[in-house]
Design brief:
Layout (H helix, E strand, L loop, with lengths): L8 H21 L1 H19 L3 H12 L10 H11 L10 H11 L1
Helix pairs in contact: 1-2
């Protein structure tokens, strides 16, 4: 059997058969059950493609749960700091008279 590649006729036939089977399942057992089946298949495929599941879980849990030494952000302090620094940056305002003068000079 040929290797399936996107954009080939073989891949089109294969995907057509997969979608026809999914449609038949939806008609036979219902949309929500087929959706659950597809989600479980996707999760299984995702877990199956991970080389080291333990390391993957550890890395993602460490991203979600911060260290005890990490300090939470104090929103009130952040907002007052932003209010105090507001207006100190360089802001360019467009003056329409400048544009009119340059248009007159170009004629």
């Amino acid at each position: 059997m040929k290797k399936l590649k996107m954009g080939t006729a073989a891949m089109g036939i294969f995907l057509g058969c997969v979608l026809a089977a999914a449609g038949a399942l939806a008609m036979l057992i219902g949309f929500w059950r087929v959706l659950l089946l597809a989600c479980l298949f996707g999760i299984g495929y995702f877990i199956g493609t991970i080389d080291n599941v333990g390391r993957f879980v550890k890395d993602n849990v460490n991203k979600l749960i911060p260290d005890k030494s990490a300090q939470p952000i104090n929103i009130k302090d952040q907002l007052t700091r932003e209010e105090n620094t507001q207006g100190t940056g360089f802001v360019y305002t467009f003056d329409s008279t400048e544009n009119a003068e340059t248009e007159d000079a170009g004629e």
